[in-house]
Amino acid sequence: MCYLKTFDPTVPMTYFLCVMSICVFTVNPYLQVCALTGGVVLLVSIKKKESLKLLAVCALIMAVMAVTNPLFVHRGMTELFYVGKQPYTLEALLYGLSLGCSIASLLIWFGVWSALITQDEILAVFGKRMPKTALVISMILGFIPKLHSKYTRLLHAFYAGGGTRRKSLKRTAMIFTACLAYEAEQVIDISLSMKARGYGSKSRTYSQRRHFRKKDAAALAFSLALCITCYVLIGSRRLDYWYYPRLSTQGFDALGVGSYFLLCLSPMYYIIKEKLLWRYCPAAS
Q1: 139-161: buried (b, 16+ CB within 10 Å) or exposed (e) per residue?
Q2: Which of 30, 35, 78, 246 has a CA that sits 20 to 30 A from residue 113's CA?
Q3: Residue 209: partners with Cβ closer than 8 Å, 6 or more residues away
Q4: pTM of the model
């Protein structure tokens, strides 16, 4: 993944914005399958075995939403069976699966985001014009992994000190409280240190490790072109799809679906290229 990280941070951040914005605002199952497929392929390529837990959670979310949605929503004309006196319809089942697919796709794409976008890159994009906002965003994104790591270390220390391995709410609350206290002290120390160094003042200087190059412009233009194509087709209602009262017989547009599928899988070009260079051309990599 080193080759992907050579791009200017604006490129991957714009790419993720394009992919996830379309995924959020559409219920078209063809686009949702493209987002889910592209996200799974990229996540497995980047994190490999580490991605299995997230994929299992996403599969569970999709299954639960698909099964439970018809229990609360009884719209649709294709009745499968009755739960009490209420119909369990195929349209509600597929709509729940569609909602689950959207949530799962977003979780997977955020997993890919966390692997490619670091706190330094967020500061590089927003640090010059919005230094305080960039700092807050980067600290929020880094808080959960740090808290999890600290919790694991405290738990191991608890075991080493003779603590029982039996799970209990009291033990969890005790360790979690210690984690929060530690993080609060860290935040205070960091804020005082940054204030002493004049962070956010007019005299603050800014340096950029990377410069926007031709390959960055080409990659950015490619992503925006595919995204704009999808939005134009969505705006012209060529990608409209509905579930109620019957399933839609339209919604598949070869140009729109193909553009979004290509957008979701475009990073695979750089991943495959890097692997081929490392395998067959060591000097070139």
Answers
A1: eebeeeeeeeebbeebbeebeee
A2: 30
A3: 124
A4: 0.75
